[in-house]
Amino acid sequence: MFEFRHGSLHAESVPLEAIAREFGTPCYVYSRAALAAALSAFQSACGGHDALVCYAMKANSNLAILNLFAGMGAGFDIVSGGELARVIAAGGDPGKVVFSGVGKSAAEMRYALGSGILCFNVESPAELERLAGVAGAMGRRAPVSFRVNPDVDARTHPYISTGLKENKFGVEFDAAFGLYRAATRLPQIEVIGIDCHIGSDLIQYAPLIEALDKMLGLVDRLAAEGIRLRHLDLGGGLGIRYRDELPPDVGAYMREVFERVGERKLKLLFEPGRSLVGNAGLLLTRIEYLKPGAARNFAVVDAAMNDLLRPALYQAWHDIVAVSDSGGPGAVYDVVGPVCESADFLGKRRELAVSAGDLLAVMSAGAYAMCMSSNYNSRPRAAEVMVDGEKTHLIRERERPEALFALERLLR
Ligand code: LLP
Q1: Is the same domain home to 293 and 213?
Q2: 157 in a domain, yes or no?
Q3: Could you tell me the pTM of the whole model?
Q4: How confident is the model over 167-196, as pLDDT tens digits?
Q5: Would you please indicate which residues are annotated as catalytic (active-site) residues?
Q6: In this structure, are residues 98 and 52 in contact, taking their beta carbons and an 8 Å threshold?
Q7: Ligand 1 site: residues with CB under 6 angstroms?
Q8: Which atom of ligand 1 is the closest one to the Cα of 275?
Q9: CA 6–ligand 1 middle distance (angstroms)
């Protein structure tokens, strides 16, 4: 949905130059069609099976995106009360919400239970105890699945690997069985499922299948004990193409999943984040200065690490392309922002034929991009625009400087 027409990069039918003119830069641009296509591919891959796709909204939590996905029947994987508030504000159904995360507060539990969420993905015995207390005080039963840590190597960046013993996530595989038995004896708890999520941006799905096999083994042991689970939640994790990776095919992955689940009466839940939104967005930025040097040439742009942290934090690669051919001479540049840190780069050693004032598009910026932005260096957050065919919609205004300190107070 992002392609060159007559030498100029378009989002669907709209030239990015027009978007920059109307909304300014830096600006995130999303394609509605690309978002819808990614979710619908995932949903269709579920075929006729009993399944629910719960979008891991931490990847991009803009209300317009949530509203689009909610309208298509998606549920949501949340990790905070703030995310639940967003789901509700966007018209999502709390009855399709699963709540993950190792540190749920009592207030968040009350809010989620009161809203009628589908399931708490409980990550520790201490959390189970707190949840039972909260539910008891509300005269309610809390629907629970345990997030089980299968001790499987997701073979991805260590910062986004979550399914190894040394990671903080989930309950230990060997302890899970005992925990299920204990939980079924708690009247405030209704045990309904099992969950795992081993990591993000997986380029092969084999580790997910390895985790699935371990989960199914546990499901069967529990069933033999009379503890029948209604659903199995396999988390997210499918990678996307940032550069030249060959990401896993959703259809092939799902076929393998359903084949292994076989005749078991289990609803399947999935929590994809990146694979639904990652390649449906880009970050549009303008070159402020070209700064040639003896060791490096720099293209200093108006977006920075506060807008897109992934290169600085994970040395992540995002393609960077000139929005139109300016006819400038080609050279190799480090594309950097105005922030006062040497880690403030969006890409290193990129060959670009550009001049000062030109627009660049930082690709694959739909996931873990705007949602990880900050106000570092008192930089207002970028605008967000959704393109739908020939139409553009401003889905988040550019932050105003006054908003940066509106919550601050002088001493009295
Ligand atoms: N479910 C749970 C419990 C998760 O923690 C995550 C992501 C997902 C689902 C979605 O995973 P996905 O389908 O997006 O791989 N900021 C990092 C990614 C962190 C992922 C955190 N958890 C990045 O920019 O690469």
Answers
A1: no
A2: yes
A3: 0.97
A4: 788 899 999 999 999 999 999 999 999 999
A5: 340
A6: no
A7: 56, 59, 77, 100, 160, 197, 200-201, 235-238, 271-275, 310, 314, 368
A8: 13
A9: 37
